[in-house]
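Supplementary Note 2. Why include the ligand at all?

Several targets in our set were suspected to adopt different conformations when bound, so apo predictions alone were not considered sufficient. For every target with a known small-molecule partner we therefore ran a joint prediction. The input for tryptophanyl-5'AMP is given below.
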Amino acid sequence: MSTVRVFSGIQPSGELHIGNWFGAIQNWVQVQDEYDCIYCVVDYHAITDQFGPEAKRYRTAQGESMAERSLRMAGDLIACGIDPQKSILFVQSHVPEHTELAWIFSCIASYGDLQRMTQFKDKSDRSAYVSVGLFSYPVLQAADILLYRASRVPVGEDQVQHLELARRIGRRFNSLVGVEYFPEVEPLLTEGKRIMSPADPAQKMSKSLGPKHYIGLMEDPKESWKKIRSAVTDVGLEAGQSMSPGVANLIDLLRLSAPAEVVEEFVARHATGELLYGDLKKAVAESLETALASIRERRAQLGDAEVREILKEGAKKASAIARETMAEVRDLVGVGGAAS
Ligand code: TYM
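The joint prediction is reproduced in token form.
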């Protein structure tokens, strides 16, 4: 196994969607054979915006607690191909060193840098109440990665700014303690790094916009078809565009799930003005269904007890690394031991 370490995380905020899959998880699965990989269900991140009366002690409309959602997300990731024989899979709150390192990092992260995070700006604009946790979220993210001294992080494009911040925090730590302790953090991006919403192709696919804005990975194909059939295609072209954003998004989905000849045929028909959007939508729905069928089958066979066991083992392995890092970090910072 390579000594290059990969770390990535996902929030247990409801279901996985095809943006998560094409943007990140598919890559998590692929790099397992090449690198030493650690994957985390980041429940502490999820409570930054789901902590409140409407969440009823973190319960969703389906009555799921955060712990239940974490378990479900972990099961989904295993069904996607995260292999506990190859990678460590665990839940963030099972390894408390994440929040300890986050505190140390919050003492060196720049307030100005955090204020410039576009995700914070977007989310705080939409919220009536802005918590410190929402603001310092990227500091916890930097701690997640650097606790394992990981240098490669497979993510979608929306996370790149957070990773730049993690790199800055790591560099600042190294320069303050005078040791090259943390590695440089680099994103690993895919061709599907930014999948757009079918209902509003100007926005990225996301659960927070509502069900018509995402296609669930474990969703009934009939549901997915409804969303694809009503995908927006006919918004006008802007200067410099040869394809409307909605059509470009459908072509991207086809490129990610269908053979190259099929994509070429649709691109050629578009170029000659012969493309029927209904045909394109049908092709996208069919190719997605085929590409995702084996994941759904694996998911149906996976029981909660098995997933719990995998997470328990994962937390044990992650904790061993995390404890070692924190002992070294405390020593470098000069805290933790009583002066003799
Ligand atoms: P989260 O839970 O929002 O998303 C998980 C992963 O899916 C990617 N993604 C997308 N990719 C392409 N198109 C889309 N429409 C799309 N929507 C989501 C995300 O980029 C992400 O890679 N802050 C992170 C979780 C996190 C993390 C970490 C990631 C916490 N700590 C440490 C990496 C390393 C987040 O909220 O992802």
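Residues 7-11, 19-20, 23-24, 42, 45, 141, 144-145, 153, 155-156, 158-159, 193-195, 204-206 surround tryptophanyl-5'AMP (CB under 6 Å). Residues 304-333 form the longest helix (30 residues). Comparable summaries for the other entries are listed in the accompanying table.
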